Amino acid sequence: MKKQTLIVLLVLAIVNIASAEVRYTITDLGTLGGTRSYAISINDSGQVVGYSSIAGVGYRAFLYNGIITTDLGTLGGNSSVALCINESGQVVGYSRINGGAYRAFLYDGTEMINLGTLGGDESHAYGINNSGHIVGYSRI
Q1: Which InterPro entries does its entry note (predicted)?
Q2: Rounded Cα gap, residues 38 and 29, in angstroms
Q3: Span 86-111, pLDDT tens digits
Q4: Per residue in 17-30, pLDDT tens?
């Protein structure tokens, strides 16, 4: 009797797991005035970063906080791309500077900070962990 009860309970558990419905919420983040927007990274707080086209200008990095989408600006050029956000809301990516080269940036919640290069003319930041360590590349 105990063995039969155990088998019935296991079968019921498997049926419940198999029939569990997965639900998703789709949110339109809009654009920053252009025709396209690309969401690239999301943190556990639901903050989303990516980039959006700007009418006649290029692309701009954005941060969506669940309510509004904010243009993160550039480092002086016409385009920027946000690629990663950590749990503290720090954002990394790359931006054009005056003259056209790309520079890695860190957005700390108030401003876009140029992370410079390792001596070359270009850098990109691709990821940031919750300790604030940034990974990317730089020409040397």
Answers
A1: HAF_rpt
A2: 9
A3: 999 999 999 999 999 999 999 999 99
A4: 555 678 888 889 99
